[in-house]
Amino acid sequence: AQTVTQSQPEMSVQEAETVTLSCTYDTSESDYYLFWYKQPPSRQMILVIRQEAYKQQNATENRFSVNFQKAAKSFSLKISDSQLGDAAMYFCAYRTTLYNQGGKLIFGQGTELSVKP
Amino acid sequence: GAVVSQHPSRVICKSGTSVKIECRSLDFQATTMFWYRQFPKQSLMLMATSNEGSKATYEQGVEKDKFLINHASLTLSTLTVTSAHPEDSSFYICSGGAAYNEQFFGPGTRLTVL
Fold it and tell me: What's the average model confidence in pLDDT over B33-37?
């Protein structure tokens, strides 16, 4: 079974600085999807960024980028120019491409990011 | 992105009663919907997967008779917590989407059982 591990329960960053959140996963599959979700205090889940495993190029979305190391099964999120609104719980998630799994997401434990003004 | 609504957003009930939570996809058809449970400061734990027109698939350890899931249409799935007890108090989140496309999350329902 696939597992997702986020080893940093809490992280802190100064406003305008850069922070990297770590995520590792375990799978025997060669094709899959990886995601980072943000959950602010409202608790609405927001998709931050997505990576397809077959793509070697790291995904980027404005200030958010990932470092995807397939062989190492690592998928870290870098937030540049951190803003107060980035403060939230961040979840790393894995999704198989196997048909019989229906597209369910497996989440890591989460990292709570605080941003200091 | 697509919108998923949940109703109610908060519910308080007495122990032993049943509570129904609705999850609706407002502007797309959700062939698959997922139900998650989240305790404070913890991750989302998948409870079950429901496909329109068929029985839900429950994750190991989730009581099928306690958490009844119905996905009667492509825009509506319901979760009924039967004979609720205080330990069922939690935050319940649904998500919907076509099977392999992006999942869109509802805003969640906070259930408190007294």
Answer: 95
Tell how far CA A24 is from the center of its chain.
10
- Write the DSSP symbol of residue A101: G
- HSE-CB at A53 with a 13 A cutoff on CA atoms is 20
Q: List the single residue in A50, A91, A102 with the smallest CB-CB distance to B99.
A: A102
Buried b (16+ CB within 10 A) or exposed e, A23-54: bbbebeeeebbbbbbbbeeeeebebbbbbebe
Q: What is the mean pLDDT of residues B65-90?
A: 94
User: CB distance B44–A104 less than 8 Å?
Assistant: no
The least confident of A9-13, A102-106, B102-106 is A102-106
User: B68, B70, B78, B73: which is closest to B31 by C-alpha?
Assistant: B73
- Write the residue in A45, A103, A112 that is nearest to B32 by C-beta: A103
Q: How many CB atoms lie within 10 A of CB B10?
A: 10
Task: Determine the Cα–Cα distance for residues B104 and B114; give it in Å rounded to an integer.
Answer: 31
B44 touches chain A (CB under 8 A): yes
Per DSSP, the three-state class of B8 is coil
Distance CA A70, CA A67 (A): 10
Answer yes or no: is pLDDT of A4 > 70: yes
State chain B's maximal CA–CA distance in angstroms. Answer: 39
Whether residue B8 has a cis bond before it, omega within 30° of 0: yes
Q: What's the rounded Cα separation, in Å, for the pair A109 and A24? A: 11
Q: Does residue A103 register a pLDDT over 90?
A: no
